[in-house]
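Hi F.,

I've been meaning to write this up properly since the lab meeting, where we talked about keeping a consistent format for the predictions we share between groups. The idea is simple: the sequence comes first, exactly as it goes in, then the structure tokens exactly as they come out, then a line or two of notes. No screenshots and no reformatting. I'm using this chain as the first example so we have something concrete to point to.
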Amino acid sequence: MPEPAQITRAPRRALHAIRHGADRVDAATPASRDRTVDALRALAILGVVLGHWLVTALVAQDGALHTASPLQHMPWLATVSWLFQTLAVVFLVGGYGAARGLATARARGDSCARWLRARLTRLLRPVAALLALWSVTATALLLTGAPLPTIHTLLKLALSPLWFLLVLVALTAATPLVARLNPLWPLAVVLHVDLFRFGLHLGPSWLGWTNLAAGWLVPYTLGAAWARGELHSRRSALALLLGGTAATAVLVGCAGYPASMVGVPGSAVSNLSPPTLAAVTFGLAQCGLALLLRDRLRRATARPLVWAPVALVNLSAMTVYLWHQTAMAATTATALLAGRLPGLHTSPDSPVWVAYRLAWLPLFALALTLCWAAFRHHEQGPRRRRDRPSRVVRRHLPPTKSPHHA
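Output, unedited:
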């Protein structure tokens, strides 16, 4: 039986090991790296993950799993989408990283094609594992007689993150053309599309999907402008925050746009599918807030214990994003073997469901950690020889000015 002194020393040793590891990561980080961008990327990705876990439910009904949302039954939860719908910040740092990366490549004399090939390879590499696993899973479910609605629900949920990746790939490919585009131009496109859709009720139904590119091009080009040094003043950040907030309030309060910044099943209009003017103005406010937080984030990430987890998330940000819905779906489907559990398989129609769902979040996080451990190497690429410790540590940091984790 261990002595009491040994028991008390164990936490101290663990804390010392954590601090030592954080110091190594901090020491291996290039001085030129903008840690603020990494912190914003990590916060935005984690916001998306938590938002999906909170507003997406898989209800066991009629022998199958069906997608539902607590926002259908509790509209007051729309405030959750205001906190966790952080896609605009993801595209902001994506545009920043792409513009900086392209400028660096040009300064080295590399061609745009070479830069783009390397960028897209890093973006698309993690997708193969996700598609392979769900191809095998769907086949196994079919062979074992699982209900078709359940298979459709699980596949749709697990593969839903790919829409974001496709948009990011398209914007990354267009970076040489749009890096210096004024964000007001895509904003004007979104404004006119919504005017035709909702104001004049003209044009074909597919017209709204023009906003899928134009809407996210607004924060993406804002990020490129930030990379050029055009948004460094506090005044510009305040203008984005206050202007975006005021515009969103008017659109939601007076123009009939939904209050939720994520899609609600059964709703006539979604702010995300495709993006509406309200979603874009809300994103402008988020970008303004992100820019205002730069100094505080810079000071915070100067501390090794803060910077180390930020660097870890950035290293595998695409893996975390692509697999977070799989983690939730796998947990929910597996737990169904134990019966219909509250917060997992019941209808999200009361605050009691919310309380149970919050209790399930650690299990979702554990499942995501297992997915991360199993598939992160697809994002990081093949390992090099472990002959130089300093380079090994450096490999465990996200590449300098890399946009792919957005």
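Notes:
Residues 48 and 84 are 6 Å apart (CA to CA).
The mean pLDDT is 88.

If this format works for you, I'll send the rest the same way.

G.
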